[in-house]
Amino acid sequence: MPVGRSVHVRVPATSANLGPGFDTLGLALNVHDELEVVATESGVTVEVSGVGAAGDPEGAVPTDESNLVARAALHVFDRVGVEAPGLALKATNSIPHGRGMGSSGAAIVSGVLAAKGLLAGIVDVSDTDVLRYATELEGHPDNVAPAIFGGLTIAWVDESGPRHKQLAVHRGVSLLVAVPEATMSTKLARSLQPDAVPHADAVFNLSRSALLVAALTQSPELLLDATEDRLHQAYRASAMPETSALIGDLRAAGHAAVVSGAGPSVLVLASDPAARLEAAAIVEQRPAGWHARLLAVDIRGGMVEPIPSSTAA
């Protein structure tokens, strides 16, 4: 690995589950973390600006080899059997932490893509490898798949490992994410899930998740029915009552609102721009602490490109 080789990485936020699609469906959002990585002689250093920087009232991320981006990059070098160089990372973060917008998945994908870029010409790391290595660290592919590939993704795991199918979202779908000041632990959210669910609830979600794929790709007018869920949101409601109340108000007004990822943010899948503005008005009427972000689907996914040596940091 030549010292001084450097790459630039850009990875989108994601919203997973999408109501009935628990641990299966994910959507890439046009909020991005960016990263520059330079191969050095030894050691790991991390410089952070934006979310997670020193002084962030919600907590700073580590600036050594324990940083999640650095851990992901080092994981790839280990998996391909190449001795890792030193790494100098400069991260510019925009994805909120602990809000259900895929910040940890984005960090992992950033590190994996950075290693892929640094290894170019030495070891070929395929898209399949990127998904596999990211899933090994994240634990499940529903968040990392849209961060890697963009758009709407269906993710599953078979005997060969994690797999995905990318789909284009209907141009009539408009996105809104209602972001609160409060955070939510993904580990806590997942701990509230029961080990088993009633047969009728499983069948209910099978029908709605199939309908949701059709609604997002062909028939946005079906989004309200398609985002009904009985597998996870009700079980987690006690841990985020304000989120649950907002979803109830939005759905009562006819808006397809769901928990974004593990929460506490709320994703609204609007069937047209006017409906999205109506949903935003409902969000802005909440007590202080909530704000509506009008977003779009990121169709490109994670990107990595070399930085010419004359411009490298």
Summarize the SSE layout with pairings.
Elements: E1 6-16, E2 25-40, E3 44-50, H1 68-80, E4 86-93, H2 103-118, H3 127-138, H4 144-149, E5 152-158, E6 161-167, E7 174-180, H5 186-191, H6 199-217, H7 223-226, H8 233-236, H9 241-252, E8 257-259, E9 266-270, H10 273-284, E10 290-295, E11 303-306
Parallel strand pairs: 3-4
Antiparallel strand pairs: 1-2, 1-11, 2-4, 2-5, 5-6, 7-9, 7-10, 8-9
Helix pairs in contact: 1-2, 2-3
Backbone structural class: alpha+beta
Query: Count of DSSP helices?
Result: 10
Q: Roughly how many Å is the radius of gyration?
A: 20 Å
Order of helices and strands: EEEHEHHHEEEHHHHHEEHEE
**What is the residue-averaged pLDDT?**
94
Please outline the major beta sheet: 7 strands, mixed
Stretches with pLDDT under 50, minimum 5 residues: none
What's the count of strands?
A: 11
Helix content: 25-40%
The shape, in one word, is globular
